[in-house]
Specification:
The protein is an alpha+beta fold. About 25% of the residues are buried. It has one domain (about 5-145): Gcn5-related N-acetyltransferase (GNAT) (Aminopeptidase), CATH 3.40.630. The model has no long low-confidence stretch (mean pLDDT about 95). The chain contains four helices and seven strands, in the order βααβββαβαββ. The chain binds coenzyme A (COA).
């Protein structure tokens, strides 16, 4: 069984390993800790036993628009609704903070994530050319919070 709860400092190394493995990024730990301080309820992890197997992390974008900065599940635990539960909790926390919309960016070649977000009612709103350091383009996606 998976447990969904708020991020704790002890989750940091697992979170960073998931980001390196699934998103190919290596952010400084201070980035995560800063975001965890800014909006603690929006930094959510999924755990199995002592292991952190997925997480989502958000920030206020502007006004009443929340931004889903990262959502990732360890490859060994995918297609078991972990991502869905993380997204649902994030949407709930955004609503509790009186946000009306959620926006995110996703690599145009990341078909799995695009299908996942479309499955959850997000639609593609725009294209950001050369958005990533690799030079890859991003789609912006958005969903109104029901
Ligand atoms: C996107 C991601 C978070 C989905 O997590 P997950 O736990 O596997 O997703 P779920 O099991 O909750 O999937 C829910 C639904 O989304 C859709 N979906 C998810 N992954 C999919 C895939 N690879 N292909 C097609 N549809 C997919 C399906 O409709 C799925 O329902 P189903 O399994 O009953 O068919 C995961 O693939 C991931 O971590 N990817 C790498 C990181 C990433 O790209 N994050 C997004 C950008 S920050």
């Amino acid at each position: 069984m998976f447990r969904i709860r708020r991020f704790e400092r002890e989750d940091l190394s697992d979170v960073m390993a998931i980001v390196a493995k699934t998103l190919g990024e290596n952010y400084d730990p201070s980035v995560y800790l800063h975001l965890a301080n800014s909006w603690p309820e929006a930094f959510i992890v999924a755990t199995r036993g002592r292991r952190t197997v997925g997480f989502s992390l958000g920030a206020i974008h502007e006004g009443t628009v929340a931004r889903l900065l990262m959502l990732a599940v360890h490859p060994a635990y995918r297609r078991r609704a972990v991502g869905t539960h993380l997204l649902e909790v994030f949407m709930r926390e955004a609503k509790a903070k009186r946000m009306t919309n959620v926006v995110l960016e996703v690599r145009v070649r990341n078909k799995d994530a695009i299908l996942f977000y479309q499955h959850h009612g997000f639609t593609i709103r725009g294209l950001l050319q050369r958005y990533y350091t690799s030079g890859e383009d991003a789609y912006t996606m958005e969903k109104a919070i029901p």
